[in-house]
Write a structure and sequence with these properties.
The chain is mainly alpha-helical. It contains 12 helices and no strands.
Amino acid sequence: MSTAVAPDVVSIPDSPAVRRPKKRWTRFILPVFTIGMIVYLAFPVFVMILYSFNIVENRQVPEFTCCTLHWWRNIAAIPELNDALVTSVAIGLLTATAATILGTFVGLVLGRYSFRGRGATNFVIFLAIAVPEIVLGSSLLAMFVQLNSTKPVGLTAALGFGTILFSHIAFSIAFVAITVRARVQGLDLTLEEAAQDLYANPRAAFFKVTFPLILPGIVAGFLLAFVLSLDDFVITNFVNGTRNTFPTWVYGVQKLGFPVQVNVWGTVLFTVGVAIAAIQVVRTRRSVSPS
């Protein structure tokens, strides 16, 4: 009769306690830095919004007395400010439209094709962005002086809406071109080739496939050109003559103390900009999210 032998019992040593990493104070560096930068960048805007409700006589003062809606109800009480703002918006829209059309073509060419002189073209595009505005403004003014030297009218009469518009288009094209080029270089060209394999001609393949894919880049370039034109002061101050835009008018009147309506209009422009940016972000998220 056989007897069963009990198996040896192997003792398993107790595993050491899992050590949790110590919470280090360095993990607070990035959040604190981020919050600090946001406060630093947004603080002047918050001050502008706050002082649009300030109770004063007719000019902005350092002291803040809360609160009134008088300046919001009389936002259009200064005709010169209204004219300057209308000029800025009109030039901004025209600049953004022209720069978007021209810059989109440049971005498409640089992003899709290899050709002799492509490197030089890229260099010129980046040079237009890297050159200080004071250099570009003085060179544009010198060009307008040279073009006007053979005409009987004075230089002041020749400078105005047209010279501002031409100058803004000149420096905005590069920004649109780089934005569109970056979008084009990120595309999958096989999508357009697949459309042509399905008997779509090159024009149909471009407008049905490529154009919708680069449209966010085109819209971003348009908005960028509009904002750059709207807030430009340095170049405009060289070529505006007697025609004022919103930044040049504010600069000219600030020596006497600018009216509170400047804060009101600034708040309106900031709110519109934030709303447009939020709409663009929502549309982008919806376009990339799975249905």
